[in-house]
Amino acid sequence: MPPASPKPPIPDAFRPSASIYSGSPAAMPVALGLPVLAWQAVFFLAPLVFLVVITFWQVRSFRLEPAFVLDNWTRILWSTPFHRALGHTLQVAATTTVLALLLALPLAYTIAFRLSVRVRDLAVSLLAVPVFSSYMLRIYAWQVVLGADGIANAVLGAVGLPKLQLLGGAFSLQVGLLTLTLPVAVLILVFAMVGVDRTLIEAAENLGCRRAQVITRVLIPSIRPAIVLAGTTTFLLAFGDYVGPLFMTGSKPPTLSILLVDTVKSGSQWPRASVVGVSMLAILVLVFALGRLAGSVRIRRRAS
Amino acid sequence: MTSSFVALKGLDKRYPGHHAVRGIDLDIAAGEFVAIMGPSGCGKSTTLRLLAGLEEPTGGSIAIGGRDQAGIPAHLRDTPMVWQSLALFPFLSVADNVAFPLRMKRLGAKERRRRALEWLDRLGLAGMADRDIAQLSGGQRQRVALARALITQPSILLLDEPLSALDAHLRVRMQTELSRLHRQLGITFVYVTHAQSEAFALADRIVIMSEGRIRQVGRPQDVYRAPANPFVAEFMGMNNLFRGVCRGRADDMATIETPAGHYAVPARRPLAVGEPAAFVVAADRITLARAEDGPPSGPAVRGTVLGLEFVGSTQTIFVETEGGQEFRVQKQQHEIEALDLVPGRAVHLAWEPRHAWLLPETE
Questions:
Q1: What is the ipTM of this complex?
Q2: I want to staple A244 with a disulfide (CB 3.0 to 4.6 A). Which of A33, A176, B45, B67 is the partner?
C-alpha cells in the first residue's frame, strides 16, 4: 500500500480474490447450489422418474416385470372407482380449503391485529407446535372426542341430548383434515398480516374507510398472494392425505390416496398404483400453477 | 385570534411511560400554512395524528371549523393526510388510488373516474391513470398522494414529513408545487417537518415543539431573528448563544456578564441587575477579522477556526472560542476570501451591539 496516496486504495477485503472465486464470480453460486441440486436429483427427481417408468411395467403372477404397455393407464383412467375417488377427493379437498380459509382469516386477523405483541408470539408458537407434532396422534385424539362413547357424546348426554354419529362421515373427515391444515393456513396468514404496512391501514381510515371496509378494501388485497398460498397449501395437504380418510371415515368412500394403497395391496399392482400416484401429482402441479397465476395476475377493478 | 379554524386547547396525549404531548394550545386561521417543527420525539407527529383522529387525546380538545372533534372517528373527519411513506395502495392503479376516498363516499364509477383524471391532470400526471404505483418515480408518487388527499376538496390538509424521502432537487420542486397548491386552494395546511428549509420556504407561521410542549409560534423571520428561548435559538442552528447574568442597566442597554466577557445588549424586556440572562447573535450578523490585525472596536470574542462548510455561495465558518464554545459565522464567499481562513487560524468575531438579541426566556 503506498503511504501517501491521494485516494485511499481499495481494501483487499473488497477485491475479488482469486483464491475464493477461482477466476469467475459465477462459480460461487454454482458451488453453493450444487449440493441442493444433487439432493433434489437423487431423492426427488430419480424416484419420480422411476414412478413414471413403473406405470408402463407389467405384473405377472404377483411379480413386477419391466415392459412398455399402456394397459395400466387405460385401465385406471377409464375405471369407475378412479373417477369416483377423484371426484370425491377433489370435493373433499375443495371443502377443506374453503373451510380452512373461512376459519383462518378471522383467526389470523385477531392474532395479528387484536393481540398484544407478547400474546401474539405465544399464539404463533401454539400454532407452530401442532405442525411439528404427530398427525396420527392428533387423529387418535379426535377419535376419543368424537367416538360413539367419546367426550362429545358424553357432554351431549349430560345435557339430555341424544347421541350423535359423529365419527365416520364427512363431518369427522373435515375435522381431521382441518386438524392437519388449519394451523398451517393460520400461520401463513398471520405472517402476511403482520407484514402489512400499518400506515396503509391508517391511510385508508384517514381517507374515509370504516373498520370493516379496511379489511375488504385494503387488508385482503394486500395479502392476496398469502391467501392464495394458504389456499393451495391446504388443498395440497388435504388432497394427498391418507391418515385422515383412513381413521376418520374408515376409508368409505375411498379417496385417491386410499385407492392408491388398496391398489398396491390387491395383487401387488404397483404399476396401477403408480398411475394413480402420477395422476395425483399432475393434479397437484396443476393446482399449484393455477394458484401461482391467481397470486400474480392483478385483478384490477377500474374506475371506468 | 378572532377566526381560528383549528383550535387546540390544552391538548394532551399520554402513552404508557411516555408523555408525548403536554397540554398544548394552538390556533390556526382558515387558509393558513402552519409548519410544526422540532427534534425527533418532540410530539409534532403525534399532534398531527391527534388532529386526524388516528390517536385519542388523553386531555384537552380539538375543534376544526368550530366543531369539537371529540369522539369523531378518523374516517368521518375529512382531515386527509399525506404520509412520509406516502401510503399509496400498491394493489390499485394510479387512478383508483386517487379515487379511493370517493369510493368510500359511494360516488358512481363514472364520476370517480372523471374527478380522478381531473386531479391527475392538475398535478401534471395526465396519461398515468392506468399505471401501477410501482411504475412511477418518487416525485410522481408524491403527486398521486397529494391528489388522493385533495380529491374530496377538504378544508384542511395534514402533511407528515411528506418530502423527506425525496432527493434534494426534487424536494425543492415539490416545495414550489405545494406552495402553488396552497395558494390556489386557499385551504389550511398543517405541515410537520424537521427540515428548517422546508418550513421557512413554505409556512406562514412556524410552531416549534420540544418534549411535548410548544416553545415558540411565529412567522419564520421572527423565529429566526427573535427566538423566544435558548432552545429555539439553538434549534434554529445559526444562532450563537451567550448565557450570563445581568450586571448593569444604562438607558435601554443591559450589560451581561458571560464566561467570554461583558457585553452590552439592547434590553428589550425588563431585566434586573443580578438576574440570569441569555442572548444570541445570529451567524450572519458577525464580522470576522484575523487576530493579528488587532481587536475590533465593540463587542467581540477571540477564537480559532475549526473548519469551513460551503452551501452554495455561502460559507459557514466554525470557530472555537477561548471559552471552548463552538460559534458559527455565515459569510458570502467574497467577503472572506481575503482572510485566508484555514483551520487553526486565530480570529476575532465582532458584532454591533444592536444585533445582540436578548432572549425573553432564559430556559
A1: 0.84
A2: A176
